[in-house]
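hey can u check if this looks right to u? its 85 residues, i copy pasted from the old doc so theres a chance i mangled smth
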Amino acid sequence: MIDLKPLWTNISQQALIILAIIGIILIIAGVLTQGFGRTLGAVAGVFLFAAIIIMLGNLQAIGEWIKGLVSTGNSGQIVLSHFLR
């Protein structure tokens, strides 16, 4: 089996740095052009994309957590308690 974890770690770190630079450029461009709404949307998209990259690094742990919820039968209780706060 091929282990791609080191490759993913290196690529994800570089992608996060590039996304940070793009986010800063978008903020500066938005302030200069006074397009605040579009800037907030674009920066939120960059943050969402960065969050997805970070989540994909922990995909095995997330899958095991979901498997634990489903296999114990407590998934309905946790979902309902989360929304009924």
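The chain has a mean pLDDT of 80.
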